[in-house]
Every structure is written in C-alpha cells, then in structure tokens.
Amino acid sequence: MVKAALEVRVVLTPGGARFVTPLTFEAITGNRATIDVWDEQPGASRMGHLELARWGDVLVVAPASADVIARLSLGLAGDMLTSVALASRAPLIIAPAMETEMWLHPATQQHLATLTERGATLVGPARGRLASGTEGEGRMAEPTTILEHVRQVLRRASDLAGLRVVVTAGPTVEAIDPVRFIGNRSSGKMGFAIAEEARDRGAGVLLITGPTALPDPANIDVIHVESAADMREALLDAMTLPGTDTSAGSRNADRGPGDSMKQPDVIVMAAAIADFRPASPVPQKIRREQALSLELVPTSDLAEEMAQLAPAAFHVGFALESANLVEGAREKLRRKGQQLVVANLVSDEHTPFGSDTNRVTFVSAADTLELPQMSKREVARKLWDEILRLRASS
Q: What would the pLDDT profile of 26-81 be if each residue is shown by its tens digit?
C-alpha cells in the first residue's frame, strides 16, 4: 500500500504485536503504529481511536482472525482496533486468516454474514498452507489482492457523487377501516440496502418508505408513507426538488420561485406497492357481526407514471414472479419504460420477504445477469455497478 502511494496508519491488536513489532510498521509507513486505547506516549490524544476513525478512507483488517471477526460483528470495543472500527464510517475490508475448521464453523460464518450485510467487503480466504502446516481453506489472501480491493472500494466511494437518487422501499398498506388494511410481506430491507449503498458511494439519496420495522438510515432523507396514494404524492414531490445541492442530507422542502429544479438522475422502485385498494374505506371499525364484502379498485402504476414524468432519469423496477422470470421481467421493462428490472423468483425454496439474503436476476433490454444468493447489501452493490455500466453505455 505504501508503494502504491497510499497513506497508511497501522493499528495492532496485542496479539498482532507479538508477531510484528510496532516499530517495524512505523519504519515502513512513516506513521506511529497504535496498540493501546490508553496510549501513554507524549502528545498522544486520549481520543485517538476517534481521530483514527475519522481519518481513514478505508479500514482494512488483515489478517482477520476468527476472534476479531466475532468482535467486529458484535460491535465490541475492547481494544484499539475494535474501538476504531466501531467509530469509523469508512468502508470495511476484511481478509480472514485462520485454520479451516475455525473458518468453516457456523459461528464464524454467521459473524461474516452479519458484517457483509452491513456492507463489509470480504477478501478471501485462499486455499493453501496454513500456520499448522496443513493444507486447506483459511490462508490470508495475497497482499496484492487485498490492495486491489482497496482500490475498488476507493473508486466506489465516489462513483455516484453528484447523482440525485430516489429509492422507494417497504410495503404500502391500504385501509379497510381504521384498524384493518390490505398489505404485503415486504420488510423494506432490499430498498434500504440500495439507499445505503448509494449514500456510501457519494449520491444524494431520498428514501420513500412504507411502514417497516427498520430505523431510518443516517445521512439519508427519509419520507414515511402508508398508502399507494401517499407514495405517489411523495414521488411527485420528488420530481421537483431543488437541484443545487445533491449531497447526502441536502433535501430542502422550502422551495422559492428562484430555486433551480432538477429531477432525479436515478429512480429505484424497490417498494412493494399495492396493486389494489378498497374502493370505499369504512370510517369506523367494522364489527365482527357485520357482513364484510370488499370491492377493490386498481391503484396507479407509479413506476410507469414516474418513467413518463422523468424521461431523462434511469429507471429501475422490481418484478416478483412465480414462473417465467426473465420473460415477465422483460415484459414489465417494456411496458413501464424502465431501463433495468431486478427480478425475484418466488418458490417453495426461496422467498425474499424478510430475509437478509436475496437471489435476483438483472434484466435489461439487451442483457440478463443472474446472481447467486447473497446478502441484500451485496445485491445493492452489484445493482449500482450495473446501473453505472448501463448508464455509461447508453
């Protein structure tokens, strides 16, 4: 990394310092290596972990033992490394290194799944000779491989800078009476992951979400809605927001006649918006003794409407199919005027509802890209890579 002209600061765990001394890293990097949160060296700050956390553009943990992976997953802060990691908002790269049995243990795999769901990048491990002298999976990835992932993360960190993105997420609920409603099983996790990935890559993000159990993401403007009609109103409002500032958290609802207007650059319709609503919601709770008959009427096709209102934007839709996945997605792509559809196949073996993972297929006018099952954050990362590729080729 030093040879690649990156500025590097090293944080050692006490165990790591038993293998390589801090002085070695100081000589290589030109910066003091840190071990103890309570560093007693002259001039050292008592808040050094916060300064390091704010300083770095990328946090690389290499080699990452099973122990430190577990502590990072649980959010512990018992030493300098985990304290920096907990305070840092920089992208996290983890390069595991351990014996095969420890690598394959369900606890390790669960901790890694948690970290990747939060957006961490996993590099390796490779297969080869291990510390015990045996051959197997668990060897740390080569330094050149880790460096290349650092470069990719640094490129990604700003590849959406200047773009204004609107993401819809979660379900909508359509009232039957003040208590009951028609809804669906969407958890909102996929849409939230897409919004968070866009934010982390430099975009200004507006997230319009139906009712979910998820907390509002930091540094993202969030509008909460309930019904499809509420979602439509929020989307229409998003078509005419001021465009002078596209940084995260820049949304300003106070618009004057002199404001410059800018429509979104990308609209991702990840919400599971109801196709039908009760024709006449009842103003009072329906009693059990009353006969109940529902007349349903169609809601507006918001994806198609947004494509017409913002023709210069890149439009992404979602398709949930139980058969003929690609054909159904391509038909929706054509009918709604979108440039990309993320297709999910629902079956007895797989459902995306409420899960932290997803298995999707990207369908565009010319291409089809089938992804294996992965965390929803990883799907979001692949999605923005594909959006950028298609925007560049159009």
A: 999 999 898 887 665 545 555 578 888 889 889 999 999 999 999 999 999 989 99
184 is catalytic: yes
Residue 270 and residue 13: Cα distance in Å, rounded? 41
Mean pLDDT of the chain: 86
pLDDT at 119: 84
Residues 74-98: tens digit of each pLDDT: 999 989 999 999 999 889 999 999 9
Helix axes 80-87, 48-55, angle to 10 degrees: 50
Please give the C-alpha separations between residue 187 and each of 61, 69, 203, 360, in angstroms, as whole numbers: 32, 27, 24, 16
* Whole-number Å distance between alpha carbons of 110 and 20: 29
Hey, what are 67's tokens?
A: 């122990």
Tally of CB atoms within 10 A around 110: 12
Grouping H, G, I as helix, E, B as strand and the rest as coil, residue 14 is helix
Q: What distances in angstroms separate CA 48 from CA 8, 11, 32, 220, 352, one per listed residue?
A: 16, 11, 12, 28, 42
Above pLDDT 70, what percent of the chain?
90
**Catalytic residue from among 31, 184, 252, 324:** 184
Residue 239, Cβ neighbours under 10 Å: how many? Answer: 16
Q: Where are the alpha helices (DSSP H) in the chain?
A: 14-19, 22-29, 48-55, 66-74, 80-87, 100-104, 106-117, 143-156, 189-200, 228-238, 302-309, 325-336, 376-393
- Write down the pLDDT at residue 220: 92
Coil/strand/helix, residue 198: helix
Domains and CATH numbers, the chain: 14-156 (3.40.50.1950), 164-393 (3.40.50.10300)
Distances (CA, A) of 277 to 231, 269, 295, 306: 13, 19, 8, 20
pLDDT tens, position by position, 249-298: 433 333 333 333 468 999 999 999 988 888 888 888 888 777 778 888 88
First to last CA, the chain: 36
User: Contact 99/68 with Cβ under 8 angstroms?
Assistant: no
- Rounded to the nearest 10 degrees, what angle do helices 302-309 and 325-336 cross at? 40
Query: Cα(37)–Cα(385) distance, rounded to whole angstroms?
Result: 38
